[in-house]
Amino acid sequence: MSGEEAPTQQQQPEQEKKPDEPPPAASDAPQEPGSSPAAAEEKPLSCRALVLTGYGGYDKVRLQVKTQSQPQLKAGEVLVRVKACGLNFAELLGRQGLYDMLPAPPVTMGMEGSGVIEAVGEDVKDRKVGDRVITLSRSGMWQEVVVVSADHTFPMPEQMSFEEGAALPVNYITAYMMLFEMANVRPGKSILIHMAAGGVGIAATQLCQTVQDVTVFGTASASKHETIAQGGVTHPIDYRTKDYVEEIRKINPKGVDIVLDPLGGSDTQKGFSLLKPLGTLIVFGAANCVTGQKKNLLAMAKTWYNQLSLNTLKLMQANKAVCGFHLGYITDEELISRCMFKLLELYRQGKIKPRIDSCYHFEEVTDAMRRMHERQNIGKVILLPEPKKQEEKPKSNAEPGENVEKSEADVSEKKEEATEEVKAEKD
C-alpha cells in the first residue's frame, strides 16, 4: 500500500490450545480422530489458518496457529502446501452471515488457492509430490496446508505464478460460464459489465476479447477508467457521477445484448430495461446489500424491495432472458474441470492473464478485506499464508490516489479496540 494509508493493527497469531485437534480443513479434508501411536512418532504439523470466529466486522476473521498429527491421506487425496489464496466478495458476505454455502463459525474460509503437492494418497495416478497446482474447495483454503481430492487440483502452467494461480479459479470460471455457457457471446454483441475493475469484471472483459468485435461497457470509479480501458473496456462509465443507463443509451440507443449484474436490487431492473430484444440478463450477486463492515438490514430490505419482479407473460412479451448464476451451487465437477482446463489453455495462449491488485500476508487480512470492501482494488486481492517478515510491506499495483487516507483518530480508536479484544480473550 502507499505511504498515504495509515498503518493498522496487525493480528498476532493465536495459539491453539488443543494440540490433537486438526486445523479446520478444506471441505474434503479428513477429520483426524486424535493422535494414533504411528502419528505420535511423527513430527506434529503446525498450520496457520484464517478462521471466521463469528459473524460481524473485520475482527471476526482471526489468524490462528493450530497443531495436529500428520494427516493420513485417504485414497484419491493429496496434501497441498498453500502458497497463495484468493479473496472473493463471497468471503465478505460470509463474514456477515450472508453466504449460506459457508459452514457455521468457527470455520476456515477460502475457496481457492495454489501451492505445491507434498504428499499423495493411494490411487492418485496423475499427480505427484512437487507438482504446482491450483485447487478449489467450498471453504477451508485460507491455511498453510490443506487436504483435498486430487480431482480438485489442476496443474499450473510453468510461467504462471502462485498469485496468478490463486486469482484464476472463482473469478474466471464465473465469467466464462456466464459468457459462454449462458449468454452465448458471439461476434458483434454488446455487453454491460458492472464493477468492471473487480476480479470477475476484469476476467469477463479479457474473455470478451477472445471473441471478435464485442463492445464492452464497464462501470467503475473514474480513477480506474484508464486501467480498464487498457484491459479492453470499450466505454468506461463512472457510476458515481453519471447515470449509466443514460450514458449507454447515448452510444447505443437500442441498449445492449448482455448484462452481467452482481449488484441486485434496482440495478437489476435497470439492467433488464437496457436489454435489446433477445438480450440476456445474468444476475450473479447482491453487492448492494453490503454497505458496511457488518450486516445492514436496511440495505438488505431495500435491495429486496427493489428487486426485479416478472411473470412469464411479461417475459414472453419482452423477448428477453433472465438468468441466475451461483458457482457455489454448481455440483457438476466435470463441468467445472472442463472449464478450468479451457481457462488454463487460454492462459498458455496469452489470451487471459489475472491482474493482481495487491498481496497481503495472513496477518494483514483486515487490510485485504477492507481494500475490497471499499472497492479500492483493480483486479484480484491475494492472501499469502507465509508469515510476514518485519521489514516487508504489503505489495500493491494500485496508484497512490486509489488509497483512502485514515485519520489519526481512526487509528488510535482501532488500537484501543484491539487492546480490548486481547483483554477479552484473556478473560
TrEMBL record:
Cellular component aspect of the GO annotation: mitochondrial outer membrane
InterPro entries: ADH-like_N, ER, GroES-like_sf, NAD(P)-bd_dom_sf, SV-ATPase_mito-regulator
GO biological process, one term: negative regulation of mitochondrial fusion
UniProt domain Enoyl reductase (ER): residue ranges: 56-383
Record's keyword terms, sorted: Oxidoreductase
Keyword NAD included in the entry's annotation: no
Keyword Oxidoreductase part of the UniProt annotation: yes
Biased composition (Low complexity): 1-13
Biased composition range(s): Basic and acidic residues: 386-396, 403-427
Region (Disordered): 1-43, 380-427
Superkingdom classification of source: Eukaryota
Alphabetized SUPFAM superfamilies for the sequence: GroES-like (SSF50129), NAD(P)-binding Rossmann-fold domains (SSF51735)
SMART domains in alphabetical order: PKS_ER
GO MF annotations in UniProt: oxidoreductase activity
Entry protein name: Vesicle amine transport 1
Organism field: Seriola lalandi dorsalis
